[in-house]
């Protein structure tokens, strides 16, 4: 399934893919359409800046390692994650990893948005630009994650039905996307996403 979109926010892609795929294929991102142009980064002065950039390059070849196993197990993700490295198809947004709880339809995904950055549409600025262009109609500032700015972003606000898409700016041109899906509602899905996002920031600070 392909998104009619020019920039991929990993959780949005994951959510759309999960809706039409079997549990065995969860945790992968949907490809961007071939030949599509990147969304321009926003010139909006409201886009928060990243004071102390973090470098996730150590994890682009092993994205599943960016979330400690202890954090995943506390959220009941006990099975190994499924790696998707960056390519021109399913990894268009950047390398990522997906986890699922078998038999429950609950999933978690993290994508390091190097693909969006490479197309000039990275970071929170790229997401604000996609929002301004109507590509992602829903965008709302989220609580900062350990001092790093974050937004909720999606085609529509699906938090009330248990799907939370959270992007954290780790550099002005790079965001890391966390998607928590299949939960009961906004409170538990976004709490899980925030917990994983915090773990990612902790990992990157210690890298």
Please outline what is shown here.
With 207 residues, this protein is α+β, with helices and mostly antiparallel strands. It has one domain: Protein Transport Mog1p, Chain A, CATH 3.40.1000.
Quickly name the level 1 CATH class: Alpha Beta
Instruction: State which percent range the strand residues make up.
Output: 15-25%
Q: What level of helicity do the residues show?
A: 10-25%
Number of helices: 5
Q: Element order, helices and strands?
A: HHEEEHHEEEEH
Radius of gyration: 15 Å
Overall residue-averaged pLDDT value? 83
How many domains in all? Answer: 1
- Give start-end ranges of low-pLDDT stretches: 1-6, 12-38
Instruction: Provide the CATH architecture.
Output: 3-Layer(aba) Sandwich
Which outline best applies? globular
Total strand segments = 7
Structural classification: alpha+beta
Main sheet: strand order? 1-2-3-7-6-5-4
Major sheet: size, sense and barrel closure? 7 strands, antiparallel
């Amino acid at each position: 399934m392909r998104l009619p979109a020019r920039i991929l926010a990993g959780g949005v892609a994951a959510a759309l893919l999960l809706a039409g795929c079997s549990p065995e294929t969860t945790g992968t991102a949907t490809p961007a359409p071939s030949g599509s142009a990147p969304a321009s980064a926003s010139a909006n002065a409201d886009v928060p800046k990243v004071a102390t950039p973090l470098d996730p390059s150590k994890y682009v070849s092993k994205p599943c390692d960016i979330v400690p196993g202890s954090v995943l197990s506390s959220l009941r993700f006990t099975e190994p994650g499924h790696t998707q490295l960056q390519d021109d198809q399913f990894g268009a947004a950047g390398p990522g990893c997906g986890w699922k709880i078998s038999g429950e339809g609950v999933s978690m995904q993290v994508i390091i948005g190097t693909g969006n950055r490479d197309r000039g549409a990275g970071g929170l600025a790229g997401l604000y630009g996609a929002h301004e262009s109507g590509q992602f109609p829903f965008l709302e500032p989220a609580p900062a994650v350990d001092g790093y700015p974050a937004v909720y972003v999606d085609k529509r606000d699906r938090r009330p039905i248990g799907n939370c898409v959270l992007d954290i700016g780790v550099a002005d041109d790079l965001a890391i996307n966390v998607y928590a899906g299949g939960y009961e509602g906004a409170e538990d899905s976004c709490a899980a996403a925030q917990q994983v996002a915090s773990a990612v920031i902790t990992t990157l600070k210690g890298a």
